[in-house]
Amino acid sequence: MSQVINCHPDWNEKKIKNTIKRVPYDIDRLRKQYNWAGKKIKVKKLKSNLIEISSGSELKCTFLIGEGTSNNKYVQIDLEVINEDSKMIMESIIQILRDSFERSFLDILTQRTIKCHPDWDESNLIPHVKDMLIDIFINVETVKGFKWIGKNGVIEDLGYNKYQFSSGEEIQGTFKFEKDPTEGIYVVQFDTKGSSNRAISILVDMINGIKLNLEKEPE
Q1: Nearest by Cα to 151 from 166, 134, 135
Q2: Which residues are within 8 A (CB) of 200 and not within 5 positions of it... i.e. 6 or more apart?
Q3: Which long-range contacts (CB under 8 A, 24 or more apart) does 120-128 make?
Q4: Cα dist. 135→21, 23, 91 in Å?
Q5: How far is CA 49 from the centre of its chain?
Q6: What are 76-132's pLDDT values in tens digits?
Q7: pTM above 0.85, yes or no
Q8: What is the pLDDT of residues 110-120, one digit of tens each?
Q9: SS3 helix, strand, coil % of the chain, rounded to 5?
């Protein structure tokens, strides 16, 4: 399976590579979420612009970073999988990469809307997202190998289904819940700000993880 993602001009090669290098952590997180076993994930730089991610014989994926026609980058993804579990995981991750690369890098950091699975309602959605933030944001030193030395994370209830979270001046943001009147499903709107590359990486990973979780039915 091969596909090409045309990146927004805000994405340079370094930002793209850093995002691709986090894919193994996403694979590992999803495996744990679904209680699926798998071989150790390996990352290999085949060329300066070609990265391979593999897991035994069950999964191999290459990412080729190239120059588009309008000075924007593109990413060609070639995927080989031998089981449905790996296929489902990689399809979800590739869709998140597409959503990210096709939009402005700054837009990703400042605003993100997640459409929830129809089975989510207010009673289980709000505590679930708060719990995920505690796991991913407040305890971020255990997530994806980040050595986070910022302030302790804080979540505050602002009322009307709106919440604020922060870690000192480095990470700040709000999220709110609304029901879409036309589709009858809940959406979660994030507005965030990170003052360093590490903080920005944490925010992107955090929201991507929440998105993956809320787009499937509650367990």
Answers
A1: 166
A2: 109, 194
A3: 120/185, 120/186, 120/214, 120/217, 120/218, 121/186, 122/161, 122/177, 122/186, 124/218, 125/177, 125/186, 125/188, 125/214, 126/161, 126/177, 128/213, 128/214, 128/218
A4: 22, 19, 24
A5: 22
A6: 999 998 888 888 888 888 988 888 888 776 655 567 888 899 999 888 888 888 888
A7: no
A8: 678 888 999 99
A9: 35, 30, 30
